[in-house]
Fold this protein.
Amino acid sequence: MKTIRETQISATTSIDCKVKTARDETVGSIKDIMINTITNEIDYVVLKVDEGFLNLGSKLLALPMESFNFHTAQDDIIIVKETKETLENAPGFDNDS
């Protein structure tokens, strides 16, 4: 996998990475990155939080880009700055929203 220590990362690469907390707890993956076509900035990152048996209870969360650390020691890991408990308790949205 491509090294993430660079100053840029492709959306495709970030979607292929696992998302973990600072406590090394796997929470899910990045589902999408939403770009504002007026400001040309990232509005938010869609995090897919895996829950339940076989992740059947997965939910989506919209988090600001600042909630993530893309510069990690492992190339295939992105760190979310929230706790696993916070993410699990946060209200999510479904795929159609």
Remarks:
- The first strand starts at residue 18 and ends at 20.
- The mean pLDDT is 86.
- Helices lie at 11-16, 84-89.
